[in-house]
Amino acid sequence: MELNEATRKRSCVSTSRSLASDPDRLSALPDCLLHTIMSFMKARQAVQTCVLSTQWRHLWHSVPCLDIDLDEFKVDKDTGSFDDNDIDNDTEWGNFGNFTVNLLLRCNIALLDSFKLRAVFHTLEDLELDNCTCAFHSITSHTLKNLVLKNCGWFKLSEITLPTLKTLVIDGGSNCYLLVIVAPAVTYLLLDVNVDYFVGRISIKEMPCLANASIHQRGRGHMVENQLPGNQFNLLCDVSDTTSLELSGFGIMKLSEESKPFQEFKNLMNLLLDNCDLTDDFQMLTLFLQNSLNLEKLTLRHCKFPNDSKQKKGAQKPKKTSPSQCQTLDIQCDNLKLTEIIYKDNDVRQLVELLMCISGKMPKNYIKLTKVD
């Protein structure tokens, strides 16, 4: 018995010495190959490699692929009670959330080739992505209520389907594909895009609950009609259920046979046109006045108007609307109470003449002129 025990100990000592004397062949591999190996691991496993040796201590900081899986944080449930299950779920989500946040703060996200977040968010209601590069094709959820996409590059995003969404903000960013938005419960919509980078079209399905909509287009070509994603005429028709509408940077609308009929803005009460081009004899403005029977306030701020006094030599002067033409305009804005025109050096005479000409169709309207420096 003692002989067997002594033999076993000598064997263990011999094995330990052999392992200690053998070189660490895995650590001898170049970092790029070690990163490839780590890319096949789940994120938590990749981080745990830091204890293997000094060389592995910081390798996970620059791993090219991150695969964060909620299953790695599952807690063994020894009881079937609901209270204990709730505590276990809170622990899982707490550990998962803390790990994910700390990992993303320490890894070089800009150099990632692949990022996977495996979790079923049964109660996720708010999601904000800021300055992210996204490779996914769609965003879908049955619980999400607020979605903010700020300065994101989503080159393949083609669908946003969120039946419970209340707030949708797309601020900046870039896209190359048709983006179809299906969010019937949205009450607030903000689209603020740079037309030089956002070349994909936008198609919005019906938003019957929409209360406030703001659409801004910026960039060098922001006054050019076809620069706006989705064609600005069709996009306006997509938000026709809103009660308050703010448009900025809209150019002259060129209607074509493919354009859908201009929709009736039956709920619209407040309209703000900011830095819009109205030099086409106020065509866009006229369309709104003809199709917004419940409009109460109209604001024109820093818009571009036809200019009589600064016409270039040889340029054709814009046609003035005659009284007979005013009578033929199908405008009934009985509820319009205030039209505020905020301008700098623009010649607003033609606009005022148009409003005075159709004043009989807007009996309650008060025109307020505000010149700013």
Automatic annotation (TrEMBL):
Descriptive protein name = F-box domain-containing protein
Per the database record, which ranges form the F-box domain? 26-64
Q: Which organism is it from?
A: Urochloa decumbens
Q: Which PANTHER family match?
A: OS04G0440300 PROTEIN (PTHR34223:SF65), OS11G0201299 PROTEIN (PTHR34223)
What sections of the protein cross the membrane?
none
